[in-house]
């Protein structure tokens, strides 16, 4: 009787996770281990970093195809020369990948900024942090604006609360743009850019010392505190990034809220209309969401590091109005991994992510999860019309809808679900999309007329 019961449970578990596919178990020296960040997709390969592992156990850079094939360990960090423990994800300018390490780099252990070619050659250390003058211990990704890299450090600066910095892609022109302090937030994380302002979160400081939402211009002016988190009321400990749908910013807190398990929230870019969408509650829907949300135009998707049925974390979805929450999968540790601290990206059909722990060797996993069975993507794709040419493109591409456009709206989302371009009141037979500041990778283009989807396509921006 006992044997039959175990066999039955196994069948149910497999069926419930039919959309899940594990692409890789991290093993240490040969692959790296304990990834704590997001993947980057260039349309062909997924690129990422691992905190530890490699020949010196100081972390690695790797790439892998979306089907799990052709895994390649591109680079091993070596501590003093190149830095160690890369927390932030990689970005690209079409030629180089750029990233940061959070520690070492010099005797003071403050971290580095680097670039490297996608084949693993050409590593260059662009900057070494020194704490007071340039900040220390960057944890968030870089942002490329007008050929200049911007980013934050979680600590250091004149107030020891972190800084906003900029540096040219060749390593010259490093400047401390803004020093955070307890009043305007301490410990800034990831930035997003709307063409005028950077928006971001801090995990400390503010009126209640529980973190805040801020915006600031790239030159350091116009700094404004949009919202102060208040522990049990709105949450605390925001470690991820905001995303933007053209109207609202969305994000998550790791702690606080009604159950001290974190929250999901939204707010307008002027600081008005704050709304808490969800209180995480442990076993029922997860807790400790350290990453960011992904938006597919219908649902917001995310992960928690712990909580859920197995207390190993969950992969969930929720609508932007706070309804429709669903626990799509409970991580289980040994098989699917656990402690997912990064964020999800998408290729339009699947979500891709990593866990820091779990898997066969308890050193983390890379996985994909099919979402068109759950979200509105399948329905929208079925209704799409028109074509985009060329695709992939380098400098520009043109949308050819099947009907004349009248006051249509174009939206472009990146693979993280962040709105990167929006144009309204379009009329005519075609729309040309200029590359502008968009980095190489996968994007989702949608043309709406009223409530009707005229075009919904995946497009790829290739290298220069």
Strand content: 35-45%
Q: CATH homologous superfamily of the largest domain?
A: TolB, C-terminal domain
Number of strands: 35
First and last CA, distance? 64 Å
State the share of residues found in helices, binned by percent.
under 10%
Within the CATH hierarchy, at the fold level, what is the topology of the largest domain?
Neuraminidase
**Weakly predicted, low-confidence segments:** 1-16, 373-384
Short structural description:
With 464 residues, this protein is mainly β. The protein contains two helices and 35 strands. A four-stranded antiparallel sheet has the order 1-28-27-26, with no helix packed on it. Strands 2-3-4-5 form a four-stranded antiparallel sheet, with no helix packed on it. A four-stranded antiparallel sheet has the order 6-7-8-9, with no helix packed on it.
Describe the structure.
The chain has 464 residues and is mainly beta. The protein has two domains: 21-378, TolB, C-terminal domain (Neuraminidase, 6 Propeller); 384-461, Immunoglobulin-like (Sandwich), CATH 2.60.40. It has two helices and 35 strands. The chain has helices at 2-16, 377-383, and strands spanning 20-25, 40-41, 46-50, 60-64, 72-76, 91-92, 97-101, 112-116, 124-128, 143-145, 148-153, 163-168, 175-179, 186-193, 198-204, 212-216, 224-228, 243-244, 248-253, 263-268, 275-279, 294-295, 300-303, 314-318, 326-330, 345-346, 350-355, 365-370, 387-389, 396-400, 405-414, 419-428, 431-434, 441-449, 452-461. The strands form nine sheets. Strands 1-28-27-26 form a four-stranded antiparallel sheet, with no helix packed on it. The protein has a four-stranded antiparallel sheet with strand order 2-3-4-5, with no helix packed on it. Strand 8 (112-116) and strand 9 form a beta hairpin. The chain is globular.
